[in-house]
UniProtKB/TrEMBL annotation, chains A, B:
Keywords: DNA-binding, Transcription, Transcription regulation
InterPro entries: LysR_HTH_N (IPR000847), LysR_subst-bd (IPR005119), WH-like_DNA-bd_sf (IPR036388), WH_DNA-bd_sf (IPR036390)
Species, as recorded: Streptomyces finlayi
Name of the protein: Transcriptional regulator
Molecular function GO terms recorded: DNA-binding transcription factor activity; transcription cis-regulatory region binding
Length: 306, 306
DNA sequence: CCTGACTCATAAAGCCAGCTTATGCCCCCA
DNA sequence: TGGGGGCATAAGCTGGCTTTATGAGTCAGG
């Protein structure tokens, strides 16, 4: 494609407003109605769709004096746009909860893996079922989650761990495994290669900064195999860790939830590890006693049918 | 959440440029380096991150005279942002192929379901493995795909159908099932409810416009049960169909690939159907003879390990 | 102990994308 | 033969993001 990849993605992909507009046109069958739904004028919508078509180099909408219909290419682009918008909705749900004031109707405390990969989807679903429910999110490790709950600073918690913390009741809502991944091309990526727990322990890995649940589980599991080596690289977000691993900087250990996409597309290769179990349960928890009522009950119900 | 939901998503979610910048900061550990990577100046990056923090109401980055690190909230937001950016990359890969000139190195013809749900991911992976491979995409039904291949207008095809079209060889790359979905609250959503093929045939459904592979399969499967009713609603994209179904307008039949997310979050409920099989194979196809070489071979290899 | 290299923040000024209002044309239906 | 819905074009405004230019804090090394 004659495009220089140096020009950033944001100049090649229409902005969210334009994508939302396109979805509205697909749904409503008219530029004008779509414009009204988004609170802009019809000429603004017209121009916006037109400039999106110019940017993509593809006609998306067939205009007629009786409305607008998607072209074949437009239908494809609209579906692809839908996935961006879905991700944006999850982002928004998460971000709102993150800034949510402590007086929210539902205060959730969750560990990182859950907050990263499961909670945004739950929040979107909760918002659909119980519109207007105000949720606040506090992310931290298991100990911090337990403390929030026991202090009454949170109504419902989610932890990733081997056992339910002292003073809490809980149910398993999902299961997660830590897996070792490397870039294709890494020596460990060879088919059939199995890494021993001892090898893994002796290898400097790309990891999140200390304190992450993943790292604690790994530490515990490898304690009897020589102990975890000092990291090769310490990064501040799972996304950064994945990026480093994909770029071939070295081996990493990540939640299965985190790398599904990358492993599917073979941007990362999963490495078998012998002699050590890295599975863990993800649990909803609350202070010992009756299960939460109200919005907490609604959210809890959601998590058990994903 | 004191936010009015009336203000559109695009005003509550930072734009792609800002999200890319945040990812770069997470990866590189410095606003200045991130700015350079994106080809903007350091003050621009500084201001952009700041305005994103203002927009979200959360501090994302801890600045210091020796660099910048993500806060705990920042790490979460960064991971959520990563998923938006991934979707945008798939969008971009697809859009480029859609506008790709006919002189591209690899000309792909694909049916809708595949072009919508599988191809963008494959193209991203192909771009990672073989940078610079120019791909063009032509979407159409199985007959159109076959024609393109036989006329030499396409190098590799993907069809969703019961059999390999005349004159082509092929391999199955994935399997898909059509499923009946309704909004929770629809009479058919009751647990244990099983719909008969005859009932389904007699019910007006929300469908894509005519000519879609989904609709053809449905038509064939229901022919012996009274024939498909006239649609309740005909919409121009899968996304629009899903939106109508979610909003409770009626029952719809969609590819399993299309509604995974919605069913997972129970925005849609899958309905069992008795007496009719709606599965179909998704195949890569090429003109009878040797399998494609060059970039076509690379793409084919990709599709068989997802 | 001071210099240079790195970090980030602030200020001033310019540009461009997208918005609105005001039109005009086209098609269909009553 | 109007009236209403639908889209396009033109002109003018505005706000956000950008760049350049600068200042201030931290650290390593001569």
């Amino acid at each position: 494609m004659s495009q220089e990849p140096s020009i950033p993605l944001s100049h090649r992909v229409p902005d969210l407003g334009a994508l939302e507009l396109l979805l509205a046109v697909a749904r409503l069958g008219s530029l004008g109605r779509a414009a009204k739904e988004l609170g802009i004028t019809q000429p603004a919508a017209s121009g916006r769709i037109r400039s999106m078509e110019r940017q993509l180099g593809v006609t998306l909408v067939e205009r007629s004096p009786r409305g607008s219909r998607l072209t074949a290419a437009g239908a494809l682009v609209t579906d692809w746009a839908g996935r961006i918008v879905e991700a944006a909705e999850a982002f928004d749900a998460g971000a709102r909860a993150l800034r949510g004031r402590r007086d929210s109707r539902l205060r959730v405390a969750a560990s990182m893996t859950i907050a990263e990969y499961l909670l945004p989807g739950w929040l979107v679903a909760l918002q659909a079922e119980r519109p207007g429910t105000a949720v606040s999110l506090l992310a931290g490790n298991s100990a911090a989650v337990a403390r929030q709950l026991l202090e009454g600073a949170a109504d419902l918690g989610f932890v990733e761990g081997l056992a339910v913390p002292e003073g809490l009741d809980g149910v398993v809502v999902a299961r997660d495994r830590l897996i070792v991944v490397v870039a294709p091309g890494h020596p460990w990526a060879r088919a059939g290669r199995v890494v021993t727990a001892r090898e893994l322990a002796a290898t400097p890995l790309i990891l999140r900064e200390e304190g992450s649940g993943t790292r604690q589980v790994l530490d515990a599991a490898l304690a009897e195999h020589g102990g975890l080596s000092a990291p090769l690289l310490e990064l501040s977000s799972t996304t950064a860790v994945k990026a480093a691993a994909v770029s071939g900087a070295g081996a990493s250990v990540l939640s299965e939830l985190a790398v599904g996409e990358e492993v599917g597309a073979r941007r990362l290769v999963r490495v078998e590890v012998a002699g050590v179990a890295l599975a863990r349960d993800l649990r909803a928890v609350w202070p010992t006693g009756p299960a939460p009522a109200g919005p907490g009950r609604d959210l809890l119900a959601l998590t058990r049918r994903g």
